[in-house]
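Subgroup meeting minutes
Present: P.N., E.W., G.H.
Scribe: E.W.

1. P.N. recapped why we're keeping a running log of single-chain structure predictions: easier to compare across weeks, and new members can see raw inputs and outputs side by side.
2. G.H. added today's entry (214 aa).
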Amino acid sequence: MKSKVFVWPLLAIAGTMGAQAQSQKIAVIQLQVAIAQTKDGQKAAAELEAKAAPKKKELDQKQADINSLKDQLQKGQNTLSEATKNEIYNNIQQKTKSLQRDYDDAQADMDQEQQRILQTLGQKILAVIERYSRDKGYSMVVDVSNPQTPVMYASPTIDITKDIIELYDQNAPAMSAPTTSKGGGLANPTPARQQAPAPPAAKPATPAKPPGSN
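Output recorded in log:
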């Protein structure tokens, strides 16, 4: 009897929560995907890649020079003097450090530009989400693109990503930044950071120290 006394109230509470959940209309969106797949997002990504291309070429050439020196050092292990090997090794070290600084600067510039783009597109797409949610009667829209989201499962039938992309592309020129509403809200309204484009160059590896050097 004691178990029933405790179980019945719990069942009553669960039933109430279930009824409340059924009265709410909830949707999910993969916000990162939505931003990236809009026409504006694709255009911005292409422009960013084109802007980074000259720097990438420069860094690639510097990496090729380092690789050439490493190859020279490797092939001359048995023929070059210790002084020459140490000179080549030190040259590799200096060039590698310089390349790493250049790479970090280029990556920082790209990250800053990418964040600027995401902020601009994020404001526009949030306006679309807000309008769509009001029109469709959604009480909440949850961004599930972040792996850290507490949502463990969401039915594909409530995923509005594709609808938002299509609606954005149709109305982007007329979209303005969303205003804070007192009704149904947007979960995680700040757009999550999109996966960064490929870096300008691979991070240079530290060359192996040749035998005989300190």
